Structure of AAA+ ATPase domain-containing protein:
Amino acid sequence: MEAAARAIGEDGFAPEWERIGLLAHILAGSRQGREASQGELERLRTLQQQVEASRRQEGGWRAVAPAGLSPIEFDVLACVVAPEAEPRLGWLFQTLQSGAPTPYPTPALLQELLAMAPEETPLLYGALTESSPLRISGLIEVEGGDPFQPVKPVPGVTARLLGRPAVTGDLPGAVLVKTPARWDDLVLPLDRVAMLREFLLWITHKATVVGEWGGGDCGGPVGLFAGPSGTGKTFAAAVLAAELGWPLYRVDLGRLVSKYIGETEKNMNRLFDAAHGQPMILQFDEADSLFSKRGEVREARDRYANMEVSHLLARIESHQGPVILTTNLRKHLDPAFARRFQVVVDFPRPDAEARTRLWQRLLPPRAPREPGVDPSFLGAAVNLTGGSIRNAALHAAYLAAGAGSPLSLGHVALAVWRELGKDGRELSPTDLGPLAPFLPKEAPC
């Protein structure tokens, strides 16, 4: 869709903005008792024909808007986007509504700008309701029901429409994940890859199913990625973000959860208010620690803890944008929350074939190797997760670089030994399986 918008270019929307500017100019003159000239009316009719024709074409508005929008819904969307597309229109709007704090139009200005008769007013306000296609598709924001409060485009809509790069600020309580990821690098069973692609459909075709076909809007979508540490849950989230061309933000629970009553909800509200409707993916790691089963109320703090969980469930369910929860302990999640997932993907520990592919991909491709460093041998030797293989492959490469020699099975054996020792348990060379004979003697047992 973004490609379609770029194909038309920002100039393709010039009749829209000229028409809105002319309507504003005519309105300003009308307030001063001046009638529109014949030339202005003729130009307005010409622009109206051009606008109607462009709205029926593929591309253009189709980059953001669902099919089937009514003329008034198109007009509202165009007027709301106009201040960001053409800043001069924002300044013009402010001169027409001096009491408004922003350049975005209010419902009162829209009614006057579009020269709507009193009997047409319900059509305008119908386009602003929560059940309207503009709201369901996450295109506009309405602040309360006051006709003098501004109507704004959801952040990111104008950028998508005009093919501009999205500019996002810091997200409260979250950090940007900068992990280059491709589908080809994802080592998972084919059925799990298929489930990830199905989750992608919930994101890319929401406007069609909800906006055009009238399907129920369940928010999100929300996905659960469950499995042992190091099995690729975060990497899979990065693959989805890369496919969409969106940023991936990992929520930092340490910056959200507070011991003070009510602060956790406030922190979460700030996060979701900033992310709502924006082209991004939110990822909650170790979700079981935050969305755990609600316990029996024994004291006041238990009651507030359960209220926090309920509040978070409600916010995630109403959030317009994809959310991914990852957990190592799926059984600890609150069953009431589990029903709200659109997709649940279990990430298994890799088998020998998958481990072979991981070793092949994660050993530095241009590193010199001794002939015995065979990914098939390494994949069958030790039962490691993908994250552990990544660490061990890099550790072995640094050992080889430090020794100034080709990467050997000795380097790999020592790297795997170090990786196994990270959990603090007592090790035996037998833990290395067929790699044990290659472990250097100086390595502590």
